[in-house]
Amino acid sequence: MCGNCLLQETAFICPMECPKGMRNGPCGGVTPEKNCYVDETRVCVWYAIYKRAQKTGRTETLLEILPPLDWDKVGTETWGDVARQIRKVGSGKFIRGILSKDKVKKKEIWDSVFKTIRQPEWWKGDSEYHPPAGSEPVSELERRLRGKDFIVATEVTPPVGISTGKLKRDIELVKPYVTAINFTDSSSARPKMSSIACCTVAVRLNAEPILQIASRDTTRCGLQGDIIGLNDMGIRNVLCISGDNPKIGPSPAGSMNFVDIDSVQMLWILRRMRDEGIYLDGRKMKEQPKLFLGAATSPFASDPALQAIKDQKKVNAGAQFFQTNLVFEADRLDPWLEELYKRNVLDKVSILIGLAPLKSYKVAEYLHTKVPGVRLPEDILKRMEKAGESASEEGVQIALEFIEKIKNKQGVRGIHIMTLGWEAIVERLVKESGL
Ligand code: SF4
Q1: Distance between CA atoms of 373 and 94, rounded to whole angstroms?
Q2: Cis bond before residue 132 (omega within 30° of 0)
Q3: Of the residues 24, 46, 241, which should be mutated to test ligand 1's pocket, given the most ligand atoms within 8 Å of the CB?
Q4: If phi over 0 gives left and psi between -120 and 50 gives alpha, with beta otherwise, what is residue 420?
């Protein structure tokens, strides 16, 4: 289907079945039964790939950063390229190599054919960590995260209309208490004011924005153009996410069949623009953008060991900070953090844990049942239900208890408060948690 077969790297299961076009591992929406949240009758294809790779001892091959589709090749055969490459290497040498008992030799000869095909010149993806080239922080968020403080970021909900009055008031409301403010990119696949527009408003108000870019609505050309345009405006923090599938958005649903790049590929493209000064097509840039790159992660979407592989891949691609999906169980974070520690990832990325103050039982129930990748434990649901009229107060207490529990966890550098439209609560949470 893709014309650039990756089956050797994906445990011989074709990732083209993923409805979000993920080429580099699972999204954060895998259901607790490990099914695909877009089509719950099917197992998540990436979970299946990870499981089989684990069984066959090939999980490390999943770290290689795989390229976006070359649309000239989609729908064509890969075998022609394979035959040409074998001829180039030498058929006899190739056959002798793959029959060899020497594992290193075997891998070398295999890669001389297949790696050359799956990693074209314009991509050259690998499994290595690439530290940022610059030594100076490029944003206030980066500067603070290099220090020792436990930092707070929050989210301000973009407007659904053209007026920016409430947006400006909300930014002013949270600005004194947080280091940076995220603006979502049409979350739940519902159009709202763009993250770019909201970030621009924030910069004018001297607030530090985090631009969110969902690969769902992004093409390789648009991504690179937006980034060079925004850099001089002071928008330096960029969070690359895959975005909710159009299926959970309003009707009529958008296309799920065209996905140009995934979030890992976005990081790889932006990191190379920043550190190597090249566009995806290899053209040299005159000036390189200044970027502090982030990624989203969903600590409980998969088994902790498998999730850590995807997260390490994002860090290798360029992620310098993580903002997690909503978390309600502090202790459940430990096995995931431990896996990241074992992979030497914790000293390369700053983790901000996502939390949401629950305003009502209805909100708690909605998050639990409708938001992909989010689950609330039974005791929190019960507490919120029992609280009745005082549910919002109970929600604040739950959030404060949670902050206390995660403050000193290894690798956790701060919190990311997803306000769900309740921006006024940020001040109280920050003050009462002593941050
Ligand atoms: S859960 Fe996400 S990664 Fe897995 S198949 Fe569905 S869309 Fe793809």
Answers
A1: 45
A2: no
A3: 46
A4: left
**Which DSSP string corresponds to 336-383?**
HHHHHHHTT-TTT-EEEEEE----SHHHHHHHHHHSTT----HHHHHH
Mutate which of 14, 35, 38 to test ligand 1's pocket (most atoms within 8 Å of Cβ)?
A: 38
pLDDT tens column, 11-61: 889 998 888 888 999 988 888 888 998 888 999 999 999 999 999 998 988
Q: Model's pTM, two decimal places?
A: 0.95
Where does residue 391 rank: exposed (0-12), middle (13-18), buried (19+ CB within 10 A)? buried
Give 243 Cα–ligand 1 centroid separation in angstroms: 12
Measured by CA distance, the residue closest to atom 6 of ligand 1 is 36
Q: How confident is the model at residue 3 (pLDDT cuts 50, 70, 90)?
A: confident
Give the residue from 74, 83, 78 showing the smallest Cα distance to 7.
78
**Predicted pLDDT of residue 256:** 61
Please, which pLDDT band fits residue 6 given cuts at 50, 70 and 90?
confident
Contact present, 167 and 159 (Cβ < 8 Å):
yes
Quick one: which atom of ligand 1 is closest to the CA of 37? 1
Whether the pLDDT of residue 70 is over 80: the answer is yes
Give, using CA atoms, the residue closest to atom 2 of ligand 1. Answer: 27
